[in-house]
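Researcher: Let's try something more involved. This one mixes different molecule types, so please make sure each is placed in the same coordinate frame as the others.
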Amino acid sequence: MSTHLNGSYLGDFVSEESILAMQEEVTKAHELLHTKTGEGNEFLGWLTLPTDYDKDEFSRIKKAATKIQQTSDLLIVIGIGGSYLGARAAIEFVKSSNYNVLKKDTPDIYFAGNSISPTALNEIVSLCEGRDFCVNVISKSGTTTEPAIAFRVFKEMLVKKYGEEQAAQRIFVTTDKEKGTLKALSDSQGFETFIVPDDVGGRYSVLTAVGLLPIAVSGMDLDALMQGALDAQKSLMQTDVLQNDCYKYAAIRNILYRQGKTTEMMVSYEPSYAMMNEWFKQLFGESEGKDGKGIFPASAIFSTDLHSLGQYIQDGKRNLFETVVVFKKPKQEMIISFDDENTDGLNFLAGKEMSFINQKAFEGTILAHSDGGVPNIVLEVEEMTEYELGYLIYFFEKACAISGYILGVNPFNQPGVESYKKNMFALLGKAGYEEEKAQLEKRLGIKN
Ligand code: PA5
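Model: All components are placed in one shared frame. Result:
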């Protein structure tokens, strides 16, 4: 098993008996998922993606990635939410959060269209100046405002720099197979397109072209990534809650939630896991946070955040639990050197591996937090490779679906995401929103 759940730091909050008592609910959730009879069952394509993915498109993704690598210093990936987080998380997890500034023979990869900040967009625009670049615009709906604004800017830049025909060779579009503005535009302008399958929602889409094209451009091994996911698909099938760590994780989350532990802090001791935390937050937040229910997904990187959030976790409101993802092997090692002066008093660590010290920080922290009334779930993973990542992605996706069904929500819709968009369009004066505009402006005290 590639991701192993260690439940020894759950204290008195969760016993083996209490996990076993969840068996019936877990089995029911499993059946809803696998017989496709639960709410949101039109979005279950991710469940069998590791076996059923489109092999022709997969090889086209690899070819497009090679073309981008050969012709560009930079790839601009335009997208937001599920059309952004997975690719960035994967690249930072396997490569580095410093990927762009490290020495490498693959293009820099910058992510745009994930905010409406003119500062952020201008910065990325200036990074393209004097350099060859391609664009991968990703939007399932093809109509999301943030990426649409950014795409308008970069498309214009490409046309100015390379001319219409060459620019079209540098634009790669990931969108719906037939619907939406982006698809229509691609067909008319001859952009190469990749598909976001109808039955895969944004936050479950990292193992489709949505994530795979940018990931491949970074030089990551797509086959190993998919193999990891495939092994997870096969090994996370059994319904026995004590044997299936994915289901056990989903069950424990719900046990803790029912005891008032309404916030989950996803924690890692590796800074390059920070974007995986963001991916996790969207996955679980959008899936579970509805109908007045849901565990609030938060995150931290330790030991960094022990110097900021540590006080609250140790001593603050007791509505938290932590899920710590621990990697047994670091990507790189460093040995603490001996210093003749020993002015910093660190010679007792001389000759020790830094990962050993990180491990002791983890052990010391988990005991302190457990003593402070914060139950800890530990997910042990061997190393930070493509294979392990594929397994972990599938593990979390399935845990999220099972956990959501246990919670009694539809884990595959996101009705709440629309409210801000409606208000924003009304306030911007989009046609058809006149009445809402007047009401909202009154509430905001805006006088015309
Ligand atoms: O999970 C979701 O559905 C959202 O976060 C979307 O991924 C996000 O809004 C982007 O949507 P689209 O891909 O249609 O541009």
